[in-house]
Design a protein that fits this description.
Strands 1-2 form a two-stranded antiparallel sheet. It has 121 residues and is mainly α.
Length: 121
């Protein structure tokens, strides 16, 4: 970054630009700056894609970020069971009979989502 900066100094603008470039390269939703702190915009998230902007903006950022990651894993996994194994990789070892697909199905249902809806979008 320093070699591309004016005067060889890295400033706030260069850092923000680099973060945006990296997020785009990693396939992540861009963040919008508000009041000096970064906040995930409802329309830029997987939650907004599947729930709609209105419902997604009603979620706390904590829930929206968590749901975004769960949706990302679900979209990448070939089955609900595989997504559950990836998401519950530690806690499943403490269960006598891990039913990862059921746990994930219940989590998605809290937001009114089903696995079949995820595949079509």
């Amino acid at each position: 970054m320093a070699t591309l900066c004016t005067g060889g100094r890295i400033g706030t603008d260069e850092v923000i630009e680099e973060i945006g470039r990296l997020r785009e390269g990693w396939g992540r939703a861009p963040r919008q700056r508000t009041g000096g702190a970064a906040a995930l915009g409802g329309g830029d998230s997987l939650a907004a894609r599947f729930l709609g902007d209105a419902k997604a903006t009603e979620l706390d950022e904590f829930d929206r970020v968590q749901l975004d990651e769960v949706l990302r894993v679900c979209l990448a996994a070939p089955t609900l069971s595989e997504a559950g194994r990836r998401l519950f990789n530690v806690s499943r070892t403490r269960k006598a009979t891990p039913n990862d697909a059921d746990r994930l199905r219940k989590y998605l249902a809290r937001f009114g989502l089903e696995r079949s809806e995820l595949r079509g979008r």
